[in-house]
Amino acid sequence: MKQYRWSLVRRNLPRKILVRAPNWIGDAVMCEPAVRGLRSLFPEAEVTMLAKPAVAELFIARPELNAVLVYDDKRVHAGISGKWSLAGTLQGHRFDLAVLFQNAFEAAFLAWLAGIPRRYGYATDGRVLFLTEPVAVPNGSVAMHQVAYYWNLLRPLGLAGVAPLPTLLVSAEEDRRVDVRLASAGIDSSDLIIGINPGSTYGSAKRWLPDRFAEVAKRLVRRLEQAESAHGAVVILGAKGEESLGQAIAAQLGGRSVVLSGATTIRELMAVVKRCRVLITNDTGPMHIAAAFGVPVVAVFGPTDWRTTAPYGQERSAVREAVDCAPCLLRECPIDHRCMTRISVDRVYDAAVQQIAGVSSLSGRSGAADQPEQTARTDHTNILSGYTIFLDRDGTLNPDPGYINSPDQFELFPDVPEALARLKRAGARLIVVTNQSGLARGFLTRDDLNAVHMKLRRLLDGVGGSLDGIYFCPHHPDDGCDCRKPNRGMIDQAVREWGVNLDRSYLIGDHIRDIELAKRIGARSVLVTTGVISPQEAESLKASGAVPDWIASSLAEAADWLLSDVSKSSVQLRERQVSQP
């Protein structure tokens, strides 16, 4: 498929750009870094956003935008005549490039109908004929966060690096008006606010149980009041139609609370969320708004895919139950809603305590006996942020009996789930790179391999060690491909799709080819002696050129060394910075 290349744009820089925003609040927040990225590519262009009313509110007064046009498909732009009228309005602006973050057929059709000469977007929803520069959709077999999905759309235009965190802005006057409104409900500007967002416009399948929201909120208020000697209050948020849900929860709280469900504009919602000490929520738009303001979030996930829509930068905030049927992406649960009902109050409460502890003095669980576990969880918080850890599979994560062609044959080494969970809690991106020549040899099919990898993800997701990506080489060793380790093809693909910084990467494997690959890409390496190389053989490697940076007897030991290595490097860097004149 033809790709829109930076060189093409440079020959004729666009002067007036139309940006079609996603339709949902959460998607729009996750698209915000890409909007900033577009502005960085074309600093002199006039950039106008076309967005539905709620999303348009979100982007009011953004410095990256010269204007925001409202697409009101419920009223003035409804029906064929409304679309024709909107196309005429767009045509009058004489845009020369349309960047379509919204994936639907309609977005491309409207840009074509408006006569915009260059129409750039992902080749989705059968709209290729209406795009002049279609961009291939990312490989669907690799879970990609939606922030990266929008950011990567602009890579053919020259955008590089990793997507930054989304940010949102409210004015001082908007902050003041929210303070006045909360004060009228008896909540002072110095009070500690617990926000809860118990609804979901997507459908009931995304909703955790109302009484559990209430119980978590009550516990958090008590804990914060005791820890910080301040008054606490609960603010209940939600969309129109969720007022009764908010009132029912408020009736269970017993303390100070205010129900704002269905009673705020998007701008008011932003300012209220910004005031929260923590937000407990389902997978909703306010979840992303909170993360964009740096508010700690605890997000209860059920039918939706936490890997693609968890709060960006707070991925460990997602609380979920690893059930076989999730993520199903259904609006209504056809069975027993087990993905939600199995998530306890204790799990969400503990997650909230940990999230708050990341930005305040509040830390630990109640009870001295639990303190060592909490210390282990928080000592390395975010130290691996920006780091990618590449992992071999067979012999490193799991025993290698030969060509595994069934999930029944696949089991992890006992220490692997917690070791990967520790690395994930420390902020690392985890990517598996594995040679699977059994495909070429006929010992298994791609469906077999997918089933094995589904089990691998399920085993790790349940303990918080979820993988960001799995790459495999399907070729025979004699094929001469560039992806079979120690060749770097799988790593290069991960770099393209994830924006990996190889200067901040490690590779853990059980074979000499893993160490050779690490050297080729400039990564630090750990050899684990759980696979083909015994501890005695590992010592002999010191006499060869393929010497790993560390030799570990298990993945748990590898994780210990890796965390220590990054900590040491961070200290050394700070010392050098301090010593510089």
Principal-axis shape equals globular
Any idea of the CATH class of the largest domain? Answer: Alpha Beta
Q: Strand tally, please?
A: 18
Per DSSP, the total helix count is 22
Helix content: 25-40%
User: Rg to the nearest angstrom?
Assistant: 25 Å
* Mean pLDDT across all amino acids: 86
Query: How many distinct domains?
Result: 3
| % residues in beta strands | 5-15%
CATH topology of the largest domain: Rossmann fold
- Physical arrangement of strands within the biggest beta sheet: 3-2-1-4-5-6
Give me the CATH architecture of the largest domain, please: 3-Layer(aba) Sandwich
Low-confidence stretches: 1-11, 359-380, 573-581
CATH superfamily of the largest domain: Glycogen Phosphorylase B
Largest sheet: number of strands, sense, barrel closure: 6 strands, parallel
Q: By helix and strand content, what is the structural category?
A: alpha/beta
Span between termini: 53 Å
Explain briefly what this protein structure is.
40% of the residues lie in helices and 14% in strands. The protein is an alpha/beta fold and 581 residues long. Helix 5 (105-113) links the parallel strand 4 and strand 5 (119-122).
Write the layout of secondary structure elements.
Blueprint: H1 6-11, E1 16-20, H2 25-41, E2 46-51, H3 53-58, E3 67-70, H4 79-93, E4 97-100, H5 105-113, E5 119-122, E6 133-135, H6 146-153, H7 172-184, E7 192-197, H8 210-228, E8 232-236, H9 243-253, E9 257-259, H10 266-275, E10 278-282, H11 285-292, E11 297-301, H12 306-309, E12 318-320, H13 338-341, H14 345-357, H15 371-378, E13 388-391, H16 416-425, E14 429-435, H17 438-441, H18 446-461, E15 469-473, H19 489-498, E16 505-509, H20 512-521, E17 524-528, H21 535-540, E18 550-552, H22 555-579
Parallel strand pairs: 1-2, 1-4, 2-3, 4-5, 5-6, 7-8, 7-10, 8-9, 10-11, 11-12, 13-14, 13-16, 14-15, 16-17, 17-18
Helix pairs in contact: 2-6, 2-11, 7-10, 8-9, 8-14, 16-22
